[in-house]
User: Fold this.
Amino acid sequence: MIAVVGVGAIGAVTAAALELAGHDLVLCARRERRLTVRLDDGSRHRLRSPWVTDPDQVGPVDLVVLAVKAHQTGAAVPWLRRLRSERTPVLVLQNGVEHAERLAGAVPAECVVPGIVWCTAEEIAGEVLVRPGEQAIEVPAGDALGGVCDGSFLRIRPVEDFTTAAWRKLVFNAVVAVEALTGRRAEVFHEPEVRSLARDLAVECVEVATAAGARLPAGFADHVVEVLLSLPPENGTSILYDRCAGRELEWDARNGVISRVGAAHGIPTPISDVLVPLLAAAR
Ligand SMILES: NC(=O)C1=CN([C@@H]2O[C@H](COP(=O)(O)OP(=O)(O)OC[C@H]3O[C@@H](n4cnc5c(N)ncnc54)[C@H](OP(=O)(O)O)[C@@H]3O)[C@@H](O)[C@H]2O)C=CC1
Ligand SMILES: CC(C)(CO)C(=O)C(=O)O
Assistant:
């Protein structure tokens, strides 16, 4: 039995994959909903597993998938306390580089499996739309989760250098904060001044990532900008959807971390230092 805690965009996509892979699931959420996942080939999968809205109604499972936003992690701990026995692993599907730290005191670090999600998913009126592109979750090599999504559209990809993998994704996430601040989708990067800001921010993030031990290839900041310019204009990002819906933003795990880790290594982060308070104050 697998529990998915937080059945939003990524939780729903993962639940759909796990259902297609033949697992028994329980969907742990603040409210029960009817949710359909529409894949990029146009096929639809309606989630069929039972929903539970009260942690007191669940017991230990074999695997917990945690897919709440980073800043919602503390509020989800009551679920983890009921769903875990001593060794139950928790696959944490969140952006950022601090998966285990966020769960300190609630889940032993050795039971936390950080997952870097490569999938662009947006919930629109009860349907989670998966945009064209890769659907994969990177996890540290050596964990026991490798085959859990076999038989579905979602690939679990073990990586030897997880630090680099997590920072590689985080550089993208930090730069797309520009979408949340401007209220615009990927097309915003075609504005010359925004493109230039995106590149400078990517350079800043790469410097911090490198100091933190990531081994990103030369020219990675330019690569990030090229990828952003190549996206379909309607592509967005989860922090933009939260901004549009007036929800709290996941700013600390995606942008605050650049300033914090930069400061710890003595690396100036002037762009992040301006963006972070704006993201934190945005409504
Ligand atoms: N969307 C994307 O394309 C991608 C997202 N990510 C990352 O994945 C993570 C999840 O993002 P995403 O799926 O977009 O976020 P969503 O906001 O779509 O989903 C989060 C879900 O968690 C639920 N939740 C919050 N608190 C609790 C709680 N205490 N108990 C139970 N459920 C709770 C929310 O419920 P409610 O509906 O009630 O608010 C919501 O349904 C983030 O770290 C994000 O950065 C990574 C790659 C791509
Ligand atoms: C899809 C992507 C890469 C965009 O930043 C993402 O991680 C998110 O939306 O949170």
